[in-house]
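Hello,

Our lab assistant flagged a job as stuck in the queue for most of the afternoon. It eventually completed. Since we weren't sure the result was trustworthy after the delay, we are filing this so someone can double-check. Below is the sequence as submitted and the structure that was eventually returned. Let us know if re-running is recommended.
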Amino acid sequence: MNSQDIPAIMAKLKFSSVAKPRSIRKYWFGTLLRGNLIRRKKLLKIGIAGLGFMGQMHYRCWKARVDAQIVAICDTNKNIVEDCKKTVGNIEGAENAIDFTDINIYHDFAKMLEEEQLDAISLTLPTYLHAKHTIQALEAGVNVLCEKPMGLNVAECDSMIAAAKSSRKVLQIGHCVRFWPEYAKVKEIIEGGEYGKVIAATFQRLSATPTWSYENWIMNEQRSGGVVLDLHIHDTDFVQYVFGIPRAVSSFGGKDSSGRLGHVVSQYLYDNDSVITAEGGWALMPGFGFEMSFNIVQEKATIVYDCTREPAFKVCPAEGEAFTPDVQQGDGYILQIDHFVKALNGEDVPTITTLDASRDSVRIVEAEKESIRTGKVVSLE
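-- returned structure --
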């Protein structure tokens, strides 16, 4: 195939959301692959920092792409090749074996940045390492997809934002729920106004105790931020995404048998009469597994989602039968990486997540923690 063949080929193809004509024109063309996809010669070179449960989730998503190649993995665990075979988590998607063929293994992050010509990294390290390693990668000229939460506190988030601005590289925070098909659809429905205003909205994220992390870092609040920052922030962030920053929060927490905060319930207060709450906990027994769900009560419909039910997603209108809306294919991890790649390629992307919004979610969580500690309503104004 040569350059004069390109217009004819493009006219015959149906382009997916991964490969649109506008973005493809920016690159050299390579081999025509199965499924009517054109693969560019220069693949994105991807590194993964941290190969625990979430690192393996990102591995799955990158491995499935035809426009990227995982060339390096960095983890301080010297036995990572064997230990990753035993990784477990609270949601499906990271259970398949890792193929280490043609992947360089590092135990020193700086060495990986120096020796590999990386276009981007998935930074899936423990939370207390997010700010330091994100800044290090940005300053080395590498784009970063950093797992949520952005940092342990607002100050760390501010330092990451400053580094992204000065480096002029792409930094995206992995708030996957904003991309999760059912959550994205319910936001679209609410904003469409067909069913009137939101009377009440309840979000739940409940899990058995996460004992699977390397050196049990998740259960160390100094390293993970605890249940509120590590787990519950998913729904805090989505509340902010749909309804905006609340004027105040009122939160209550329950401690587990070891005296650690293991459960949180928050009400987000706005200048209207909508009742918006979120509940998160990881003090449930091993047999419980994992549940993420929401119930949205509107004037003319109730919208429900529960990942443990079938069907998981339903709209129950005031008139007519309940139905399951069509949603985008894939999961939040796949779709957030697709968004990240489009940003790397200079494409126009919708404003789904921003660095300021990721910072604000940490700020709201800090207010929730203060409310739990003091027993008072905490203002965010």
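-- support follow-up --
The delay was a queue issue, not a problem with the job. The result is valid. The longest helix spans residues 355-374. Residues 1-41 have pLDDT under 50 and may be disordered.
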